[in-house]
Amino acid sequence: MTHTRTRIQVKNSETILDAALDVFSSHGFRGATLDQIAEVAGLSKPNLLYYFPSKEAIHLALLNQLLVTWLDPLRAMNPSGDPVTEIMTYLRKKLETSRDFPRESRLFANEILQGAPHLRAAIEGDLKTLVDEKTVVLKAWMDQGKIAPLPPVHLIFSIWALTQHYADFDVQVRAVLGPDHDPFAEAEAFLEILFTRLLTV
After folding, report:
1. Rounded Cα distance, 88 and 177, in Å
2. Sequence-separated (6 or more) residues with CB below 8 Å from residue 137
3. What is the pTM of this model?
């Protein structure tokens, strides 16, 4: 029998996940505690445990949500579209994700740095399958002479690295640029020039 959650249950679950995102992205999985998450959420620990049975359960719920957000822009790359337009759209969406979801980006980075104990099956499964699929698309565009010949997987890696950097190393980026700069606006302009030139035959 399926039980429909009440509005307050939905709200409390979202509050816990948002608080956990703050704690995990700041302290990593190992450094985070249920007490910290409960405190940030403004709930008692027993109340938190009513919604999630363990720290691992909260972490996994966040990671599963994150993976959907992370993969959707790559899924949207259209094999029938203009190659440069499709790749640049993907790059912009990844940069927007770093701008709009910096905590999620750091959560993902922490998970990977720890050896992906909770996400290994997903990155070896759904993520790898999607990258393999889009690699075929990129290779076809290259073989047709529509974009410059490049290692397709490393092209994807470079987009990840050059966009997620602005979330994962936000403090460093802003310290170097200074207070009068918008790092994301400047990054978008630079990356557009960089990748347009890189992809041009």
Report:
1. 24
2. 77, 79
3. 0.85
